Amino acid sequence: MPVEFKIIVMGEDNIYQLLTTYDEDFWEMFKVRLNSTFRCSRTDDNLRSFACYVRTCCDDEKLLPFDRSGVSKIVEYAVRSAGDQERLSARFGPLKDLLIEADYWARDAQSQMINGGHVEKAVAEKIHRLDLVAERIRQMITEGTLMVDVEGAVVGQVNGLAVYDLGIFSFGRPNRITAKTFLGKRG
Predict the structure, then answer these.
(1) 0.85 cut: is pTM over it?
(2) Which of 27, 33, 90, 134 is spaced 20 to 30 Å from 11 by Cα?
């Protein structure tokens, strides 16, 4: 029996680049590419929809209900994740994970509702789990293993900062940027 269907693949741009580079059949199967944003405007309608999404997740995952402060902290998290005060993140996977973890902390505190404090605790614990690399860099600077000159000037050297983004948590690592020049050949 003949069957007609379409396959839609969603994912990050770097995965797409890898697939197009290493799988020669990928282009034949997925000829149309669509870029979409993971952010939406912070309008009253979108905020209401966001609150409805939180409620739906609570029902689907059997989570405790959120109070106003809990929903407010979730919206604050979505704004921070979007990186723009006028936008909300539309990445619902990490958001759902945060809702589930906030539920854990609310139940741990024997609360009947998830409040802003439980959401803050969930975010703090998630950051703490990711903070190992940043903590190691701070430790190396303190021990003198990673040296950062912050006084004086050296020709051809400048201090820089590489920002590592781990999703919910970003941190900076100092780097020395150097440049060398030499007399080239004529022409």
Answers:
(1) no
(2) 134
